[in-house]
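Researcher: Sequence recovery benchmark, item below. Answer with residues only.
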């Protein structure tokens, strides 16, 4: 597929975000989280992780195209992200980011929750954006969020504190692997040795969770949480994290972990290009276990990032081929002619056999965080767009 198709896909998705998903005054208070089609609502949560992913996407778009088409939006999103971080030096949670704000400006008790995976993804996206636009505030923000989580890292390598706000069921890999990769990227940016030390401690923990076949134990297997997250998700994300680790350290432990996770991730790739939830042997790894489904909230966009990162870390063209197949799958199934409310986006799960949107994410999850009726900005659209932009950029070299 011509890489121009990837750029067109990104611009089509951005038209959806601009027309349907921005808060008042063109995104002054950020971008909404998602649409729930069957509930006929646009969820009024505005999340720092989703918005930082959007900031990264817009920043990469400007670098690739030379266009300032989204410059005003990027500026508003950046300012919102920076002001909702805990910026009080006297706060116990100084540097951390909350789960969400209602309408982008109202703080609620549930929105105050601090999630390791969200904060890790924020740190990484901040550093990716900083690498391009060099705004020192982005680096300072990444340093502050890193310092918060390092301050509560446990001896075994994960990140937990019983303080009423920090997420406590945090043994699963998703709650460690983003922070680990972010610390290494921050070490690269600043030279701070404490970030590398914390990262390697976290990676020791993650390596112990990887099984011989290459997959990584799920949060459901470890703590009976994240029931609705398919097995494919945490293994694909582990591939990303191990790839970052190998690229930056050249430690052979990470080369081995990368190779094993990469082989398992590619083994789940359907002929259409999508990454399936699981195989027939792993139905007990999560309650989301229909092996005909391709999850788009927790897997596809992250898998695209992971395959590109693995390719860049190793030069192995199998990862490039897998990334392009997945990218082509995403552009093929992008919503078109369904509704002006979500055309240009992607819904939460797709059946690779019937070639239709299918499935739910309501396994012990009353807000159905995924499935065919969810249309996410962050988690789905932003990461799909980021991966498509990276492939387009690499195709021009």
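Model:
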């Amino acid at each position: 597929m011509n890489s121009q198709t990837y750029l067109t896909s990104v611009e089509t998705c951005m038209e959806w975000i601009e027309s349907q998903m921005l808060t008042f005054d063109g995104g002054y208070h950020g971008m909404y989280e998602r649409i729930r089609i069957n509930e006929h609502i646009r969820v009024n949560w505005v999340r720092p992780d989703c918005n930082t992913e959007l900031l990264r996407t817009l920043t990469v778009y400007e670098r690739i195209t030379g266009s300032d088409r989204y410059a005003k939006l990027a500026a508003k999103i950046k300012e919102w992200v920076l002001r909702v971080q805990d910026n009080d030096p006297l706060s116990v949670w100084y540097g951390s980011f909350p789960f969400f704000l209602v309408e982008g400006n109202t703080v609620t008790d549930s929105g105050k929750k601090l999630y390791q995976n969200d904060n890790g993804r924020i740190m990484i996206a901040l550093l990716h954006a900083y690498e391009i636009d060099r705004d020192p505030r982005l680096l300072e923000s990444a340093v502050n969020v890193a310092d918060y989580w390092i301050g509560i890292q446990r001896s075994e390598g994960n990140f937990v504190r019983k303080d009423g706000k920090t997420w406590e069921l945090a043994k699963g890999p998703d709650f460690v692997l983003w922070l680990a990769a972010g610390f290494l990227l921050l070490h690269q940016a600043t030279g701070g040795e404490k970030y590398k030390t914390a990262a390697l401690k976290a990676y020791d923990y993650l390596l112990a969770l990887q099984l011989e076949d290459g997959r990584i134990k799920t949060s459901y297997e470890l703590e009976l949480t994240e029931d609705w997250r398919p097995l494919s998700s945490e293994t694909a994300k582990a591939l990303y994290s191990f790839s970052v680790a190998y690229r930056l350290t050249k430690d052979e432990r990470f080369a081995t972990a990368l190779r094993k996770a990469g082989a398992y991730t590619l083994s789940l790739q359907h002929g259409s290009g999508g990454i399936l939830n699981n195989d027939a042997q792993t139905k007990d790894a999560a309650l989301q276990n229909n092996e005909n489904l391709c999850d788009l909230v927790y897997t596809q966009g992250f898998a695209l990032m992971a395959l590109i990162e693995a390719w860049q870390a190793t030069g192995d063209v199998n990862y490039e081929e897998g990334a392009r197949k997945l990218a082509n799958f995403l552009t093929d199934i992008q919503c078109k002619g369904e509704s002006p409310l979500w055309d240009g986006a992607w819904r939460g799960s797709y059946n690779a056999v019937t070639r239709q949107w299918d499935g739910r994410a309501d396994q012990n999850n009353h807000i159905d965080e995924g499935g065919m009726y969810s249309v996410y900005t962050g988690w789905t659209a932003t990461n799909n767009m980021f991966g498509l932009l990276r492939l387009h950029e690499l195709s021009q070299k």
